[in-house]
């Protein structure tokens, strides 16, 4: 569903909130070049044709020139999709608002980072304990003189 910029920025936090516990929100930002099916047909003709006109169409399609393009921003979940078009003049202001929105609504990522670090620390402690059990403690004093002589003989 294509929304204007303000409605998009108001609907995006609702998507983040709905998918906070389980799910994901995919946000894509890309250039919108205003060309539809007619342009696709021209590109197809250029690929299939062998003449000079076909080459000219292909080269014209690849050259960008001094055009300014709008930006297409999409957000999608498993059940809902929203999008907006942002004019080049409004892009900086829109991205600043979008950045602030991300900072306020993506707090859950910090929680996962902490869990990841905690799990890594637990694995490290378990590995250290396993290494400690595998090494015999040669510094401990044996209870009898016979065991002490046996240990000394094994060291040599």
UniProtKB/TrEMBL annotation:
Residues 120-156 are annotated as: Disordered. GO terms for molecular function: 7S RNA binding; endoplasmic reticulum signal peptide binding. Its main location: cytoplasm. It is found in: Cytoplasm. Pfam families: SRP14 (PF02290). One of its GO terms (biological process) is SRP-dependent cotranslational protein targeting to membrane. Gene3D superfamilies: Signal recognition particle alu RNA binding heterodimer, srp9/1 (3.30.720.10). InterPro entries: Signal_recog_particle_SRP14 (IPR003210), Signal_recog_particle_SRP9/14 (IPR009018). Keywords: Cytoplasm, Ribonucleoprotein, RNA-binding, Signal recognition particle. One of its GO terms (cellular component) is signal recognition particle, endoplasmic reticulum targeting. SUPFAM superfamilies: Signal recognition particle alu RNA binding heterodimer, SRP9/14. Residues 130-148 have a biased composition (Basic residues). The keyword Disulfide bond does not apply. Component of the signal recognition particle (SRP) complex, a ribonucleoprotein complex that mediates the cotranslational targeting of secretory and membrane proteins to the endoplasmic reticulum (ER). Belongs to the SRP14 family. Component of a fungal signal recognition particle (SRP) complex that consists of a 7SL RNA molecule (scR1) and at least six protein subunits: SRP72, SRP68, SRP54, SEC65, SRP21 and SRP14. This is Signal recognition particle subunit SRP14. It comes from Coemansia asiatica.
């Amino acid at each position: 569903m294509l929304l204007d910029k303000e409605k998009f920025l108001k609907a995006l936090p609702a998507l983040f909130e709905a998918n906070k516990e389980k799910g994901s929100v995919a946000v894509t930002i890309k250039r919108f070049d205003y060309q539809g099916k007619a342009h696709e047909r021209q590109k197809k003709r250029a690929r299939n044709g062998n003449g000079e006109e076909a080459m000219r169409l292909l080269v014209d399609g690849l050259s960008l020139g001094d055009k300014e393009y709008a930006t297409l921003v999409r957000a999608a979940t498993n059940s809902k999709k929203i999008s907006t078009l942002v004019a080049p003049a409004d892009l900086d202001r829109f991205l600043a608002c979008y950045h602030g929105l991300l900072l306020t609504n993506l707090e859950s990522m910090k929680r996962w980072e902490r869990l990841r670090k905690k799990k890594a620390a637990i694995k490290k402690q378990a590995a250290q304990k396993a290494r400690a059990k595998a090494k015999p403690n040669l510094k401990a004093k044996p209870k009898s003189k016979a065991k002490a002589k046996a240990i000394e003989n094994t060291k040599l």
